[in-house]
């Protein structure tokens, strides 16, 4: 993968040939548009639903609620070791097949078969119907016709993706494009210390992706997170990334290491000096066996690089940090103005209490930043819905925001064209 060029046209937006006119947020404020997105985007693209570590043994499974796609799925490791996914529905009367006390809550576990709570129909881990209660009461029932409805599932670098479009012919690796190929080889499997956050956010799903795709807001919204001297310096000079890039529906931003030690320890909080950690992670990076970064990671090979944020359309962000840890963000829509945000931090397992505290500080720092963003976005949503203003100017640092909304709208338009009946042939004399 080639290093990012400095845009000769004068801006990243121009470099990537993206329209510079004000942006409308009409795609984020109506139930009607959201209903189109559910079918055009979330039922037709590859969605990351978990990692292989969630399926450590044959028979391990977990469920995932995909409200935007109008379904629930169960992901399982079969007795042959293969990872498969199925719609979480019994073929008898449509009951949700795998759940515990509360049908809308996700669950996980290990089993040899799935048994419906309603009438005890049973399915093996490959989805075959194996038992029907009082089978003789049915009329010419052929169990081979009533297996679980499968969902396309593929694994990339330990991340499990599904695609609900039965007509999809694009393999996952091809869909992930040059970023997926360029990240391959990063040792995600060594980062098995996991911390998760989940929050219900009162904003459109795209607005939260917007917040994490630019750093223009950081010196203002997050000023309280910095020491006064650091805050003043950042406010004065702002914050600009190293590079922005786009590949198909996806995007990425490569960022500096920030104003952090060992550059100037006076600029960070006392607890960060004591634990040698903070928002950018533990200062002492663990050995994960990398002699050099995969080509998509720090593609500019900048000596002061700090992290890369990959935005895999539609709703998966992967952040690779210089101190050898990883964050993932997921944005799961539940309506046109609400979504569930999931943040997951992955570290090399700590060897002692001090290393555990270093990781904990990084995680709670991320949580505080995330809460500030989420709170602001709920305020944004309310005023967008007022329709007082309908067009908004974006600067060059917000190039990935333009790309995200343009891409989402293109998926909707393409879907609408496919659904529209072909015009009747005109009569000829």
UniProtKB/TrEMBL annotation:
Pfam families: Rieske (PF00355), Ring_hydroxyl_A (PF00848). Gene3D superfamilies: Naphthalene 1,2-dioxygenase Alpha Subunit, Chain A, domain 1 (3.90.380.10), Rieske [2Fe-2S] iron-sulphur domain (2.102.10.10). Keywords: 2Fe-2S, Dioxygenase, Iron, Iron-sulfur, Metal-binding, Oxidoreductase. Its cofactor is Fe cation. CDD domains: RHO_alpha_C, Rieske_RO_Alpha_N. The keyword Cell wall biogenesis/degradation does not apply. GO terms for molecular function: 2 iron, 2 sulfur cluster binding; dioxygenase activity; iron ion binding; monooxygenase activity; oxidoreductase activity, acting on paired donors, with incorporation or reduction of molecular oxygen. Residues 46-162 form the Rieske domain. PANTHER family: CHOLINE MONOOXYGENASE, CHLOROPLASTIC. This is Aromatic ring-hydroxylating dioxygenase subunit alpha. It comes from Actinomadura montaniterrae.
């Amino acid at each position: 993968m080639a290093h990012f060029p400095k845009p000769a046209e004068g801006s990243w937006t121009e470099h990537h040939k993206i329209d510079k006119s004000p942006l409308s947020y009409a795609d984020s404020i109506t139930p009607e548009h959201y209903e189109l997105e559910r079918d055009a985007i979330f039922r037709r693209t590859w969605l990351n639903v978990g990692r292989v570590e969630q399926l450590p043994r044959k028979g391990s499974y977990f469920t995932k609620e995909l409200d935007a796609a109008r379904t629930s799925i169960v992901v399982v490791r079969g007795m042959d070791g293969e990872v498969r996914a199925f719609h979480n529905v019994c073929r008898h009367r449509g009951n949700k097949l795998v759940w515990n006390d509360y049908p809308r809550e996700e669950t996980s576990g290990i089993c040899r078969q799935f048994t419906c709570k309603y009438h005890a129909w049973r399915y093996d881990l490959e989805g075959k119907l194996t038992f029907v209660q009082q089978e003789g009461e049915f009329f010419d029932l052929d169990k081979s016709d009533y297996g679980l409805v499968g969902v396309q599932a593929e694994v990339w670098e330990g991340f499990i993706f599904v695609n609900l479009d039965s007509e999809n012919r694009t393999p996952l690796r091809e869909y992930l494009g040059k970023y997926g190929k360029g990240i391959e080889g990063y040792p995600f499997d060594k980062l098995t210390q996991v911390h998760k956050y989940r929050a219900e956010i009162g904003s459109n799903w795209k607005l939260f992706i917007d917040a994490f795709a630019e750093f223009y807001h950081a010196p203002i919204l997050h000023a309280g997170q910095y020491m006064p001297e650091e805050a003043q310096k950042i406010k004065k000079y702002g914050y600009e990334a190293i590079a922005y890039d786009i590949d198909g529906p996806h995007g990425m931003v490569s960022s500096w290491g920030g104003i952090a030690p060992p550059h100037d320890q006076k600029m960070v909080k006392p607890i960060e000096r004591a634990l040698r950690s903070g928002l950018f992670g533990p200062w002492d990076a663990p050995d994960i066996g990398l002699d050099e970064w995969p080509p998509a990671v720090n593609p500019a090979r900048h000596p002061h690089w700090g992290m890369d944020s990959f935005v895999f359309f539609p709703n998966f962000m992967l952040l690779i940090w210089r101190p050898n840890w990883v964050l993932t963000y997921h944005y799961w829509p539940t309506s046109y103005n609400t979504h569930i945000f999931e943040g997951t931090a992955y570290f090399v397992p700590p060897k002692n209490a001090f290393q555990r505290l270093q990781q904990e500080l990084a995680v709670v720092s991320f949580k505080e930043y995330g809460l500030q963003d989420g709170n602001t976005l709920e305020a944004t949503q309310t005023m967008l819905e007022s329709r007082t203003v309908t067009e908004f100017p974006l600067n060059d640092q917000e190039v990935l925001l333009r790309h995200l909304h343009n891409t989402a709208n293109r998926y909707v338009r393409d879907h609408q064209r496919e659904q529209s009946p072909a015009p009747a042939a005109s009569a000829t004399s």
